[in-house]
Amino acid sequence: MERRCVALISGGLDSALAARLMLEQGIAVHGLYLSLSWGCCEKDKAAELARQLGIPLMVLGVGDAYLDVIREPKYGYGTGLNPCVDCRIYMFRIAKRYMEELGAGFVVTGEVLGQRPMSQMRRPLGLIEAESGLEGLLLRPLSARLLEPTLPELLGVVDRERLLRIAGRSRQEQLALAGERGLSGYSTPAGGCLLTDEHFAKKAKDLFAHDERPTTKDMELLAIGRHFRIGPRTKIILGRNELENLQLEGHADKGYTCIRPKFAAPAALVAGVWIEEAPQLAASLILQHTKAEKRPEGPLEFWMNGASWTAQVCAPPVEADAIPL
Length: 325
Known about the structure:
This protein is an alpha/beta fold. It contains eleven helices and twelve strands. The chain has two domains: about 5-180, 3-Layer(aba) Sandwich (Rossmann fold), CATH 3.40.50; about 225-325, no CATH class.
């Protein structure tokens, strides 16, 4: 077996420590960061940790196919819309393909036995390993001595006695190990998957209920602004600050129309199937979320995908059928 492995690097402490334990045994490590466009793990921190470890880092997007995992997970959801077991299986299948492409011998992750109730208990750990096609080839160095030996251990490629037996949710042992090894800049343990967030999950459920084939761009937009559903296949997103206004402008494309006021107020993005009343409803919502002293008198001037447009709205109307998410 090759003395090379693929280590999934998330930007968190556990994955960095797992990779470091391999380096300390003379194993060549190739880092792999799997990117979700709507945010989850932190790419910048993953890159910084790879730099500290002195390993190459491949960044791969999960693609639209991942959304089918969220829509219909075989093993169900956690507290929100998080399909933790199915997600790990999907990610590890990607890691397996990358391992084979590199000619590496096995895959390494920072998972810790008992740390997460849905995906890191003994049974799901075994299930994930089997369903990803990595039986015997998925090494979890932080908990390895509490788990069955993997092929790299059995073949003597990895010294099992130099691996760890960490379990549970406490991070004290990992923090101490990081201090000893000079690792810094990792994401905080409190961070996590947005799909576990109540508000993000609510918007994601609405998206899947109304769109048969959402894209990763649609998921990315769930992390931006206030969302209002105005039709079965149409919604309006309002920016909450100037940064979000600019982000919404940046998403203007086929199927996404940005309406930007020429006065100090939120930008709006109409996403989905275009309906005739969308611009007027967007103008109404913009006005409702504009401070009274900043509302202009008379007709309202906007840019709509770069073209000038005037809306005849003189006072903040009622939201009508717009459903806030």
